[in-house]
Amino acid sequence: MKRSKIIFAFVSLLLSIAATSAAQTAEKPKKTNFDAELAKKLGADDYGMKNYVFVILKTGPKDAAYKGKERSDIFAGHMANIGRLAEEGKLTVAGPFGKNDKGYRGLYIFNTTTIEEAQRIVETDPAVKSGILIPDMTLWYGSASLMATPEIHKKIVKKDF
């Protein structure tokens, strides 16, 4: 009986040591590649995230009203506006959707935290002004790394639209 109590105490001690060791290991902070300067430059919070406005561009009521050169000129202005907004740091991501049955034509992710500011920005788009496209906007919380997209894109593009 005395021997079993000693064995029980010994096993309990070993389990206690193992549990304490595991807890101490779990409490150690993870090693990260955190770059405070980059996080600040990109506007990241403690999670590496930030607020944006996500915009889905949909087919507008005047889509069929423009043909030929007039339509081409509007879309040339649309593309120039995208470039300008990216250069100014207001636009982090833009691009078209493939064919779909929802009338979705493209998206913008604006570097702003309010729908009102995003509305002012999107109204500079000739395709929106003309009614070819209409914006549907919502607040969005995403990776601050998106802010680096325009600079990276400049390094990988071979042709302009």
What report would you give on this structure?
With 161 residues, this protein is an alpha+beta fold. Helices cover 45% and strands 22% of the residues. It has six helices and four strands. The chain has helices at residues 2-27, 36-42, 68-87, 115-122, 126-129, 149-156, and strands spanning 49-59, 91-96, 104-110, 133-143. A four-stranded antiparallel beta sheet has the order 2-3-1-4. Strand 2 and strand 3 (104-110) form a beta hairpin. It is elongated, with a radius of gyration of 27 Å. The model is unreliable at 3-19 (pLDDT under 50).
Topology:
Elements: H1 2-27, H2 36-42, E1 49-59, H3 68-87, E2 91-96, E3 104-110, H4 115-122, H5 126-129, E4 133-143, H6 149-156
Antiparallel strand pairs: 1-3, 1-4, 2-3
Fill in the keyword field for this structure:
6 helices, alpha+beta, elongated, four-stranded antiparallel β-sheet, disordered N terminus, Alpha-Beta Plaits, 4 strands, 161 residues, 2 domains
Rg, nearest Å? 27 Å
SS content category: alpha+beta
How many domains is the backbone divided into?
2
Q: pLDDT under 50 segments (min length 5)?
A: 3-19
Average residue pLDDT: 87
Walk across the major sheet and give the strand order: 2-3-1-4
- Helical segment count: 6
Largest sheet: 4 strands, antiparallel
Shape: elongated
- Any idea what the CATH superfamily of the largest domain is called? Dimeric alpha+beta barrel
Q: Tally the beta strands.
A: 4
Listing every helix as H and every strand as E from the N terminus to the C terminus, the arrangement reads HHEHEEHHEH
CATH fold descriptor of the largest domain = Alpha-Beta Plaits
Per CATH, the class of the largest domain reads Alpha Beta
Distance between the termini: 87 Å
Helical fraction equals 40-55%
Indicate the proportion of strand residues. 15-25%
**CATH architecture label of the largest domain:** 2-Layer Sandwich
